[in-house]
Amino acid sequence: MATIAIYLAVACVVASTIFFIRSRLRRCTIPGPKGWPFVGIYPSLGHEIFKDFAKLSKKYGDIYSCRLCTADAIVINKYEIVDDLFRKRQGTFNDRFIKLPDTLDIPIGFGELHYGDKWKEMRSFTINVLNNQNLGDRTFEDLLNEEVSHFRNYVINSHGQKAFKPKRALLHCMGNILLTLVFRKRMDYKDSEMNNYTDAAHNLAQCLDPFVFFGVPSVLQILGRFNIIPIKKLRLSQLALDKIATECHAEIATHQKVKTLDGSRDFVDVFLEEVDSKKEKNTKTFLTENTLKGIASNLFAAGLDSTATMLIWFVLLLTKHQDVQKKLREEVDAVIGRDRLPTLKDRDSMNYVKALMQEAHRFVSVAPMGMFHMSATDAEWQGYFIPKGTYLIANYWGMHHDERLFPKPSEFNPERFLNESGEFVKSKYVTPYGIGKRICPGEVLAQRELFLFVTQLVQTFNMQPPEGVDAKNMNSDGVYDGVGFFPPEFEARFLPL
Ligand code: HEM
């Protein structure tokens, strides 16, 4: 027994030494903080890792490399460099970390798939459907405005003029919009089934937590994913994926049995039509029932929590900054009035709302480091060596709070994006949806949702803090969890206008 223990100990020491020497020899040569052997700078990082990354960039520059426990990483704090690596260099720096072979037909969405033909086909199909929603007789505005009116009725009937925490109801709204687009169904605000979706989406977003990621070697992550070892966040993410995949399976079966008669179409209808048409034409395709499950998981995981969280941030910021809410309402009154609902076309003539949207995205940075990329091959950048498998972290929060670009970055001030004539000035440096080849495929959808929702909210309600609370004193310090930067819990009163 003692001999086995000695052999094992020697084997461990030899394996660790080989691992250590190999990682030293194949190191990224971009300079950066040294950190400790094996763990690198990981133990010195605080919970809001992106703030520490921004601090380190003051010392080491706009791009630096570092070791984060099990991984080598490059942290980038400047738009031009991210643009160079993520857009101009084709696929080299656009891989993801999950390395499952394409032939394994299990439900993996394109969000976690590595850069290649399968990712391209799934992604371009999804963008096409999301951006050109053909909802039959209804327009996207109809769908959204209808959901806001459900929200309005819910607020008035359930809370009257009393302050309440709007988070759940707003998550529910966004959940219904996605459910309608993907599965052509919506749920009542009292239906607790919706919590399963919103919780599933939140759990999935949470498991991309960099601390789980870098702290747990990838073999353990895979074991955790299949519940061989219990890692809470990974276990939750598996439950979430299973929930969405099961739902998707049931919906596909229903859609195949019952053809729509009223001309309304959803994501599943369009997907099944595409698969049939490819079969008829004998065209090679990666689109199968499993890829549909993967895409649906992506849409809920990446699209629900992010957009809903941003909407909740808008409600908090407009309640806290009453002057901003007033200016926004003045513009809504001038351009849309109170007798009709907003349309997407109105956006063209609304400078203040565009400045507000850009400033809120900058100030909040709801996905502070986007989703990490990985280098697909050994590569070179400006004479430096970057080994295959290096993580690339674009610090969007850091870029959005860079005082060289945005003076007084911690002040929330939509006016910074208006010129002297009051016209909106678009900034290429505000990039909440990412940069380059893997830029968020839901950007157009999210921007449409947020515009219609926010304008209708100020057209319908005067949002006020709870009685006795000074709006200016409302806490607006974000809480970082997983991939998202969430608003703190707050209460507001929605007074009908
Ligand atoms: C405020 C709302 C949103 C924000 C701020 C946001 C932000 C982002 C960011 C930063 C990325 C990573 C980009 C990269 O890796 O370079 C991303 C990826 C992604 N987003 Fe969004 N997103 C939002 C809404 C949505 C919506 C509505 C959907 C779909 C319904 C969606 C689906 C996805 C998917 C599938 C990916 C992975 C893309 C890929 O790997 O090719 N997102 N998003």
TrEMBL record:
Biological processes per GO annotation: organic acid metabolic process; xenobiotic metabolic process
Transmembrane parts of this sequence: 299-319
Keywords: Endoplasmic reticulum, Heme, Iron, Membrane, Metal-binding, Microsome, Monooxygenase, Oxidoreductase, Transmembrane, Transmembrane helix
Intracellular or extracellular location(s): Endoplasmic reticulum membrane; Microsome membrane
Annotated positions binding heme: 440
UniProt-listed Pfam families: p450
GO molecular function terms attached to this record: heme binding; iron ion binding; oxidoreductase activity, acting on paired donors, with incorporation or reduction of molecular oxygen, reduced flavin or flavoprotein as one donor, and incorporation of one atom of oxygen; steroid hydroxylase activity
Cofactor: heme
SUPFAM superfamilies tied to this protein: Cytochrome P450 (SSF48264)
One Gene Ontology CC term in the entry: endoplasmic reticulum membrane
Source organism superkingdom: Eukaryota
InterPro entries: Cyt_P450 (IPR001128), Cyt_P450_E_grp-I (IPR002401), Cyt_P450_sf (IPR036396), Cytochrome_P450_fam2 (IPR050182)
Membrane topology label: Peripheral membrane protein
PANTHER family assigned: CYTOCHROME P450 2U1, CYTOCHROME P450 508A4-RELATED
Family as reported in the entry's similarity comment: Belongs to the cytochrome P450 family.
Name recorded for this polypeptide: Cytochrome P450 2C20
